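Example A, followed by Example B.
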Amino acid sequence: MKLNNASEQLKRLTSDVSDSKEALQRASRALNELTGYDQIDAVKQKVNNQATLFETTRDQVQAAKRAYEDAIETRSTTQRGINELLQRKHLWTGDDVTKFTELYRLEHAHSQAETVAKEKYQACEKQMDREYMELARSIMERYHEEQLWSDKIRSVSTYGTWALMVVNLLLFVAVQTVFEPRKRKRLTDRFEELLVAKVDEEEQKFKGVFEALDEK
């Protein structure tokens, strides 16, 4: 099926393509389809897409990590403020009570934000691991397809070499059994013709000499 499709594409190159560059591109695609290299191109594209996706996920992990670290720092700052107030609890003023209440409320909000940031960071890490495994699988698939294609081309090359040797052998046999005898026969016939002509010429000379002697 692939062979027929590739052949049809090659036939259409001279019928509906006026641009030589487009013709070369079509011929290249048809050749890739004929040899099976189009599958390798598809796998290569899959690897490139997966690599891009992995890099995007890795960037998301870095951003989530920074957000998580910032959330930890914010909560730690709030916690330090609360601890400082608790250490001088016996000296609190009205403003200290208000500040403690506000810090306690913020500490609760910051704790929740830290938990959310941590969960997002962990989720991004897991997603990055999945994308990495998928990238590794696609690379192995590409390697496998390239090995199969290389073995196929090597096999075709081997068959082509044997076919060329057989053709050369047949040509040699044909030359020795058909063409050489004919050539030798033509040379022999030509030699015989020349020999007969030479003999006739000599006979004519001798005949002329004998006739001249008879006249005397």
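Example B, a separate protein, is given below in the same form.
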Amino acid sequence: MIGAVVTDLGDGASDLTPWVALVVAAAALATLGTWLEGRFATEASRVLRRRVLRGAFGVDPEHVRREGAGAILGRIMEVEPVAGLAATGGLQALVAAVEVAVAGAVLVTVPVGRPLALVLLGVTTTAVILLRVHVARLTRETGLRMDHTGRLLEDLAGQRTRRVQGAGPADPTTAYARAGARSDRTTALVSVGATGLWQVLALATLTVSGLSEQASAEQLAVALGAVLLAAAGLRRGGVAALGLTTAAIAARELTPLLRPRPYRHQMLLPPAGRVLTAEDVELRRGTTTILSGVQLALAAGDRVLLSGPSGSGKSTLVEALAGLRPAVGGRVTGRAGLAPQFCDDHVLLAPMAFNLLLARGWPAAETDLRDAWELCGELGLGGLLARMPAGLAQVVGETGWQLSNGERALVGLARALLAGPDVLVVDESLGPLDPLTARSALAVARQRVRTLVVVSQE
């Protein structure tokens, strides 16, 4: 249609030179924009992933316990929309704004297009209102999705935190599906609804204005070109706005990882003749004081039994001695290695050697593998390694070779011993073992570590 009009214009065709130039440059601009988007998205993704992982490793362990490891992993999974959508959405939004602004300016310059400029303003305002509604719905959907993802990850990892055990939707899947359906409806309205509304209203207004004002063919061509340019801008802007809002909401969830309050335990050297001390230590869980006025002084070669009833704070104390929990009062000097409770000693989906040598470098050196093999033999895991087709290279964990509770307890103790601590705390980690195997494992620990603290129920 535009081509036919231009052909009939004759000498007036020179007035359409800007449109011709725009069409000629469109392919080059599109190619350049795609290249810039790809480069920017790749670089932004690299930087963002590095910062998020650094922040995740620096999160206070107490925050992980309170929020749940699944929720932290769920936040990390939000990196993808931030890195990709923020890059492409930002550039596309800029191009869309230029297109709509140019279209509006062109419409104002021709009499037949002035009513269309008002219609364009109204459609743009409607699109902004729809976008605000979409932001509210998408925020709700994102919150439900992250909560549901966190619960699933916690279940898969076998962990139960206070957040997971707390009250939540009776059927989180149904609530998430409903929120997603509502968000999808506004997504469709923002992405194509505004463009369709503009095209219908613009063509109707252009027809009425053209018939009533006896507009020239040149004016109709200019106005029609502006209508098409505005339609392209609205369509591009809708898609870009959806990407930016998704990225913005995801970025808000990533904020605790991008700007964490890292937990840094500065190990203080113990006084001469001591390997580990606690001086008037006070420990809390949240706002509740668990222990206060704790005094402890261990010398090389000490053997200590720490006993008490359930809930008396034994595990809280050994976490502080191992540098895993900060003391709100007093100070701890030195640091102990920890063989944690069986329920907290996780086996990762990885080779057996990786699970044993977490405290050493990886890939493991030949000497490290030899040490791990010898220690497993001393602890009674030699038969297990013999049954595994790949030995220390055998993948264990959730979907790998299944370990019994007793085998997992021995793996946890071996992991702590291979770290080579001066002081080792065994926090009820041998509970799944029979008495004979437990005594044998403790004998191995006494041979390999000079100072030993054993935690047991009273």
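On Example B: Residues 114-157 form the longest helix (44 residues).
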